[in-house]
Each structure stands twice: as C-alpha cells, then as structure tokens.
Amino acid sequence: MTKDRIGRKRPKIVVIGGGTGLPVILNGLRSHNVDITAVVTVADDGGSSGVIRDYINVVPPGDIRNVLVALSNMPDVYKKIFQYRFNSNDQFFSGHAIGNLIIAALSEMDDRGIFDAVQELSALMKIEGHVYPASDVPLTLNAKFTDGTSLAGESHISAAGKTIKRVWVTSIDDVEPHAKEEVITAIMEADQIVLGPGSLFTSILPNLMISNVGQAVCQTNAEVVYICNIMTQKGETEHFTDADHVRILNEHLGKKFIDTVLVNTEPVPKDYLDRQKYDEYLYQVAYDFNGLRDQGCRVISDNFLELRDHGVFHNGTQVVSELMRLIGRPKSWYADELN
Predict the structure, then answer these.
(1) What's the confidence (pLDDT) of residue 51?
(2) Residues forming a β-bridge with 264
(3) How many other C-beta atoms are found inside a 10 Å radius of the C-beta of residue 324?
(4) To 10 degrees, the CA torsion angle through 122, 219, 300, 208?
(5) May I have one GO cellular component term (predicted)?
C-alpha cells in the first residue's frame, strides 16, 4: 500500500477493462483514499477510434480518453472541450472527439508511442492515479466461434451474430503482445484487481489475453473482483448467466482466478429499456448462484442497478462501496469461506 500526505496507508486498486463501464467505477473510487491505476484495452476498431487507427496506425484512443477525463482534476470546461465530438459534415472531422485527435497526435510526436503519450497527457490533465494502455501498439481482437469459423476485429466479431468460443489478440507485426513493465508491476503490487464492468469478450478479455497481463492477474496476491454485466449483449453473451461470464474468464486463463464476483439481483423493470437507443442489450443476465460457487468464487449479490435515460447501468456508488468493504482481505480468507 502507498501512503497519503499524513502517512495513512492507501490501498492500491487496479481496474482493468474498457468501454463505458470503466469510468463509472473510476469516478466512484476517486472519492476514497485509494491509489488508482486503470489498465485500458487497446483493441477497439470501431467509431472515431477505429477511423483514427486506420489512418495513422496508432492505438485506438476512445476508451483511454474517457478514462483520462474520469480521473482528471482539470476544470470542467477543459474536460468538456476534450470530450467534444465534431458534428459538422466535414468528411474527416465529423464524429471525431477532440481528445482522440490529441492522444493520436501526442503518440505520433517523436515516435514516443501511446504509453508515453498517455503519461505526458496525464500530467497535463492533472490525473489522479495512473492510466496505462494495456499495450503500446495497436492490437487486433480475434475470435473463434462455436461453428468453427474465425473473424478478426472487434466490430466484425460483435456483428457476426455467432456464439463466441474463445478470443485472443495479435499485433500488426505478428510479435506476441506484451504490456509495459509498469502495467505488470501495478498488478503484482495491487491490493485489489477489479475487472469490469464491461463487455466480456471485447473490453475485458482483450486485456487478459496479453500474455504477461493474464499471467500477472493469475499470480498476484491481490483479490481479483469481477463486476458481472447486468444485461446480456447481442453478438457476445446472448443467453449467458452470471456463472457463464465467470466460466468464460476462467477458461481463457486456464484456472479459477476470480476470487469474488459482484452480481446485480435487482430486476430491470419491464419495458423500461429503450431498445433502439441501447440496441446491443438483450435480456437481464440470469442469476445462477450454484454455478457461480462451482467456479470457486465468493458471490456478492445485491442491488447494483441504476436506471437513467431509459438505460440500464451499474450504480457506481454502490459498487465502489462494496469494493472498499472488501479491500485488503487476503486470498486465504476466500478459501476458508468456500470450504
């Protein structure tokens, strides 16, 4: 644990993932006396991030941009500028966020790469904690489906409408992807590792499929907590229970490495979800307590639901309160409880 200005120990929490769920947890953690590190996926190939990646071959910046804003102490007006997305009809700028362009420019300057660029930008944005891209080079997500076919590219995988059997990541130069040493050190020195919330196959697993990241998560003495999704996702986790989510994670890393899983058991009101706006969500994830226990993890079930804008989200305050309650307990504590 690190220490704060008056000598109190600050728990080290590493949050791994991507998408819109990660900033929710990071915003909640900021109100607590903890040392935060966010490890962010770099396998996105859709939207503004995908276009920038195709044009100048840099790590897709969208998820990194959102995490930087979540941890930034800049005035709100600067955050708003950084997040501004062009709505003009210009063929290039339309749909791009200013922050994405700044991250891409910094990573291209002096060939410094995305990792060093994000560290420099973190200082400029007065980041509270650390933001680490999972890899310093763009990665491609690959998937094999249960029908034996394979596809490359996150957006293509999600749109295929097939059941995913397994995923893995590759780099453009066919060199085995590795995370920077700072990422591995953060995981090994952490008191708690938090996975999610986020898309199982396209936000969480792409990080864990980087070999030294997956190995570190399995070897760390930190408690590994998985925040299970509330809704199933089209093209990814159709008909999945919460136990299925944990099983897939464990199968990909070859061991039962999840210590604790947080699952929402509060029902989503019928007809509340705007299915046109949130068209990737299908049904509420079914609760399978016995299946979760079979995966060797501690189960914490509660009302983690937040309803707003006719969408279904995790209640960041409630989830973070549970994470703080769990912090610092050794892995042996979980083994004793399961026996």
Answers:
(1) 47
(2) 302
(3) 18
(4) 60
(5) cytoplasm
Measured CA to CA, the distance from residue 60 to residue 53 in angstroms comes to: 6
Give the count of alpha carbons within 13 A of 207, CB side only. 29
Confirm if 207 and 187 have CB atoms less than 8 A apart: no
Q: Are residues 305 and 260 in contact, defined by beta-carbon separation less than 8 angstroms?
A: no
Check residue 55 and give its pLDDT: 45
* Contact criterion met (CB below 8 Å) for 187 and 165: no
Nearest to 99 by CA among 85, 120, 117, 113: 85
Beta strands 12-17 and 192-195: pairing type? Answer: parallel
- For residue 5, pLDDT beyond 60: no
Return the structure tokens found at 329. 């307990």
Percent of the chain whose predicted confidence (pLDDT) is above 90: 60
pLDDT at residue 50 in the model? 42
Q: How far apart are CA 30 and CA 76, in angstroms?
A: 16
Domains, the chain? 2-41+137-338 (3.40.50.10680), 46-133 (no CATH)
Distance (Å, whole) CA 259 – CA 193:
10
| Better pLDDT: 43 or 310 | 310
Interatomic CA distance for residues 89 and 100, integer angstroms: 18
Rounded alpha-carbon distances, angstroms, from residue 9 to 191, 215, 322: 11, 27, 19
- pTM (2 d.p.): 0.89
Residue pair 164/251 in contact (Cβ under 8 Å)? The answer is no
